[in-house]
Design brief:
alpha+beta, about 35% helix, 2 domains, five-stranded mixed sheet, about 30% strand
Length: about 200
C-alpha cells in the first residue's frame, strides 16, 4: 500500500511541478526579454538626445563684423558674404544682403579698403560705360565713397533687380555690379538717413 500511495502521490505531483516550472521559467523569460525590450526601446531616445546635444554644442555663431569697430558710424561690406553691416561701435544696428562688383574686371570690382562717404544725393542718374557696355540707371539714393581712375563708387539702390538677387549674385558672374554696392531700396533709404558725410566705409574681401 505504501508504494501504491507513493506512486499516486507522484502522479499528482508531476502536473503541479510542471505548473510551477512553467510559471518560474515563464517569469524568468518575461523578465529577461521584457525588460531587455524596454531597455532597447529607451536606447534610441538616449542616443538621440546625445546626438542632438552634440550638434547644438558644435553650432558656430555667425561672425560679428562689428566686433572690432570703435567708430560711431562704420559701414562694413563683405564681398565674399555679399552683405553689409552698419556698425555703431561694436553693435550692428542694421544689416542687409547686397550686390557687389564683378571681381574678374579691374574697372568693375568693388575695391577693398577703408574709405569715407563724401556726398549724399537723391534722384540721380548713374551713367557710365566699360567693356561690358554702357548704362544710365536712375537711383533714389546715392552715397559715393571713392573716385579713382575707373570712376565713382558708392552705395545705391537697384530697383531693377528682383528681391532675391541681393546676397545671391556671385561676384565673379556677369550679373554683378559695375563696382558699386547695390542694395534694396529700403536699405538704401535707411543708410541715407543714418550715415553722415564722412562716415567710414570698410570694404573687406
Amino acid at each position: 500500500m505504501r508504494y501504491k500511495t507513493t506512486a499516486r502521490k507522484r502522479q499528482f505531483s508531476k502536473p503541479l511541478i510542471s505548473l510551477v516550472l512553467v510559471v518560474v521559467v515563464g517569469g524568468l523569460l518575461w523578465w529577461h526579454f521584457g525588460s531587455g525590450t524596454q531597455a532597447a526601446a529607451n536606447t534610441p531616445a538616449k542616443a538621440s538626445s546625445k546626438v542632438q546635444a552634440k550638434s547644438i554644442a558644435t553650432t558656430k555663431p555667425a561672425p560679428n563684423y562689428c566686433a572690432g569697430n570703435s567708430l560711431a558710424e562704420n559701414v562694413v561690406v563683405s564681398i565674399s558674404a555679399r552683405h553689409m553691416w552698419a556698425c555703431s561701435n561694436t553693435q550692428s544696428v542694421y544689416d542687409s544682403a547686397v550686390v557687389t562688383g564683378m571681381e574678374n574686371l579691374p574697372a568693375d570690382l568693388t575695391p577693398t579698403g577703408t574709405y569715407h562717404i563724401y556726398a549724399k544725393e537723391t534722384d540721380v542718374y548713374l551713367k557710365g560705360s566699360d567693356s561690358t557696355g554702357s548704362w544710365n540707371d536712375y537711383v533714389y539714393y546715392w552715397l559715393p565713397f571713392l573716385d579713382n581712375q575707373y570712376g565713382v563708387y558708392g552705395f545705391h539702390d537697384a530697383t531693377w533687380r528682383p528681391a532675391d538677387a541681393f546676397g545671391n549674385i556671385d561676384p565673379y558672374s556677369s550679373n554683378a555690379s559695375h563696382g558699386c554696392v547695390e542694395m534694396p531700396l529700403a536699405t538704401a533709404k535707411w543708410l541715407y538717413n543714418w550715415a553722415s558725410v564722412g562716415t567710414t566705409v570698410t570694404i573687406e574681401s
